Amino acid sequence: MATFNITINGKEKTIEADPSTPLLWILRDHLKLVGTKYGCGISQCGACTVHFNGSAVRSCQLPISSAANNEITTIEGLSENGDHPVQQAWLEIDVPQCGYCQAGQIMSASALLKRNPSPSDKEIENAMDGNICRCGTYTRIKAAIKKASNSEIA
Amino acid sequence: MTKIKTGIGRRSFIKSVSVAGGGLIIGFNWMACKGPAEEGSEELAMQMPDEWFELNGYLKIGDNGIVTIYSPNPEIGQNVKTSMPMIVAEELDVDWNNVVVEQAPLNTEVFTRQLAGGSQSIRQGWESLRTAGATARQMLLIAAAKQWEVPVSELSVENGVITHKGSDKTIGYGEIAKAAAQVEVPEEVELKDNDNFKIIGTSRKNVDAKKIVTGQPLYGLDTYKDGMLIAMIVQPPAFGMEFKTMDDEKVKEMPGIKDVFTIDTYPEDMEKEWSDVAAFSKLVVVVGETTWQVMQAKKALNVEWDLNPELTKEIEILEKSAGMDDASGLESTDIHATLMADVGSKQSEVVRKDGDPEKAFKNAARVIERSYTCPFLAHNCMEPMNFFADVSGGKAELLGPIQTPEYAEKSINKRLGLELEDIDVQMTRMGGGFGRRLYGHFLVEAAVISEKMGKPIKLVYSREDDMTNGVYRPAYHVTYRAALDANNKLTAFHVNAGGIPESPLFANRFPAGAIDNYLAESWTLNSNISVGAFRAPRSNFIAGAEQSFLDELAEEMGQDPIQFRLDMLDRAKKDPVGEENDYDAARYAGVLKLARDKSGWDKGNSSLSRGVSAYYCHNSYVAQILDMSIEGNEPLIDKVTCAVDCGIVVNPDAAKNMVEGGTIDGIGHALYSEMTFKDGKPQQSNFDTYKLIRHKQAPKKIDVHFVDNGIDPTGLGEPPFPPVQGALANALYKATGKRFYRQPFINELQTIDTELKT
């Protein structure tokens, strides 16, 4: 057990945990921030995606020892009132079916648009390929990303 | 207007919701249909009624006109949590913006079928949902008429406001709800004509969407309660094996670990429900404080496993009968393939026979014979199996993802000996279902573990546990034969289908009824691998196989594949063979024609390869036309045109979403997914080895068209899934010049690529 300081959604947190504990389980078990989902534990499905200093990472593969002293944003902190352009686009397109993977999809999509506000279809596919949606909402996810991006053709 | 007996009587109006619901009806989801309202804010104060009046188990009305509608069925992503309340709201005549939706508690006295399966929620809920809304509406009208001392016939309602024609007096539902709650339940109520629908047939957003996109707790795995421990299982590494012994001393000393023990979920003397299917009954359990600690302990645990001769004996006999010298009774995919190809069909039973197929085949100028197979599949719900259980003081509280809460309650009753009224099963939104959560063994395991620990626990399956502890889609095999005469006319049709351990045959579905000489045979082979329903059971294979064969047959006969099917359907409609045919040939033809028109089939498209398919299952009809190309060695799917006849479409945009998802799901599983076995051991245990379709592989565009026929709604969750596999196989043939007989197609597609390169 060790003590770690970490900034999550702009708030300083002090965590007591085994250094190997993945950020995913710190968020869920320790902080009860359950929006970040467990899907595979081996960074193959993307359900646990969070922003690590602004970039999309899989929190199931990021031990707390490496996450400490860095800025983490989770789905709960993406926007104050759930009105991030990507979240709004998701609501307008009514993307979710079961909804379980969508937080991870939104975190990957918002990180993509931050570094590339006008992604092409190919760029969207490449950036999103690590996020599995078992219900098959891929076409809607792409439509929502395009809606939230500057590349939308009216 | 249709008059309908309410039939729900006083018994259904027991205030059971608040009793059985426990905490579920507290904490209203204001975010569901309005913007998020901060606690203590003006907006919330305006919305929150001082008092609720329950008019029946489906709904209650606040004194300010806000209506809470309970969605009775489990939500697995099919969006019934939005569409079922829409049906109630329609007949209640209320403004959808004033509706708050809550998941109903399990209550079999009030609700008719609280189960997510068979694409039946809307179809079987249709009448009771409408009746509940119409009954409450009538009670509100009666109360208003009484207050104003006017006949009910002089009143009308719009958006929750009652108006008296003569005096122009108005009163809101909120104001009259208290009086309405005292009104005798009418014996008969009128249902609306379809033409008067204002909510049904209009697109309404998913009531949980805001919570989903902001990461609020919704799913079973999101459950955290005071004093709750985490439990995980360790299971035999292979089907046919069982627990022998373990060394758990060191593991019990690990940080956070509370206990390590074994359980027997389903003892032999227990009377099981149909839903009590489990890969393994005897499991090792590790309980601890946090998920990561328990995961570490699981890895460190040293367990020895043994062959279970009771399980392997029959399989060994089967393998030996097929001449396998090294028969071990532990199953492998290559052995399955041999058994299905060589042994299964020799044990066939005739299920249906029309005319004289033997004679027709004997006299045939030409016989076309093709065989198709598919592998086992894991459901792979994105939210792994889990359940919260708190069993103490003679009561059980169970909360989590379950498609069959009613049966789960009975299982707990049988397993723990608790009275039904002391068992509270609560439904959470589910991170996928696909049939996997029909089988509630994980709920029973959680209850047994909680009882043993004397503490609330959450049972969590790792992805590996989830994938290797499957209730899998069985492996299937089918051989089709068609007899053609000298004029290239189809004279007989033979289907011989089987699987491990169930047959995918639907003997009375098309093309039965369209051919004079028809023979359908079925067989099964034993297995120790646990299997169950997987989205569109049996159809999920046989549709694609049949539609591939019909495509090949049409080509052999020199006919357009759509016209070929339409001609057969025309025969089935005008002069059906047999009386057991369980499809409507006109509706079947309807979706084919719609897909043909919408896709521009007749115009063709030279740059893309195109395949068609159509199928009937779960009371609905779907035709799909798929356009694709091959780039490098990857199939690129440009567009799928879907035509769907599921009767009245309650929530059109959400229904489109369902068809898009089913289409992608069907393509994905046919192309990429398989669960294989070696010596009883599942060979895929996570998404690095188990392939699921991803963003890049999804179709660029999916066009969805519904047949508008006003027929009461039929299934939609499953029907779009099976046929697209046939459309895909037929398009792949056009793209590669090779027919695809074995799922997943990617394996053979890669072989072609290798052949081309070498």
From TrEMBL, chain A:
InterPro entries, alphabetized: 2Fe-2S-bd, 2Fe-2S-bd_dom_sf, 2Fe-2S_ferredoxin-like_sf, 2Fe-2S_ferredoxin-type, Beta-grasp_dom_sf, Diverse_Oxidoreductases
Keywords recorded for this protein, A-Z: 2Fe-2S, Iron, Iron-sulfur, Metal-binding
Ranges where the 2Fe-2S ferredoxin-type domain occurs: 2-78
One of the record's GO molecular function terms: 2 iron, 2 sulfur cluster binding
Coiled coil: none
Transmembrane as UniProt keyword: no
PANTHER family the UniProt entry points to: BLR6218 PROTEIN (PTHR44379:SF2), OXIDOREDUCTASE WITH IRON-SULFUR SUBUNIT (PTHR44379)
UniProt protein name: (2Fe-2S)-binding protein
Automatic annotation (TrEMBL), chain B:
Residue span, Aldehyde oxidase/xanthine dehydrogenase a/b hammerhead domain: 214-309
Iron recorded as keyword: no
Entry-linked Pfam families: MoCoBD_1, MoCoBD_2
Alphabetically ordered keywords of this record: Membrane, Transmembrane, Transmembrane helix
SUPFAM superfamilies: CO dehydrogenase molybdoprotein N-domain-like (SSF54665), Molybdenum cofactor-binding domain (SSF56003)
Gene3D superfamilies: Aldehyde oxidase/xanthine dehydrogenase, a/b hammerhead, Aldehyde oxidase/xanthine dehydrogenase, molybdopterin binding domain
UniProt superkingdom: Bacteria
The keyword Transmembrane helix is assigned to this record: yes
GO molecular function, one term: oxidoreductase activity
Membrane-spanning intervals of the chain: 12-32
PANTHER family the UniProt entry points to: ALDEHYDE DEHYDROGENASE, BLR6219 PROTEIN
Protein name from the UniProt record: Molybdopterin-dependent oxidoreductase
Source organism (scientific name): Christiangramia sediminis
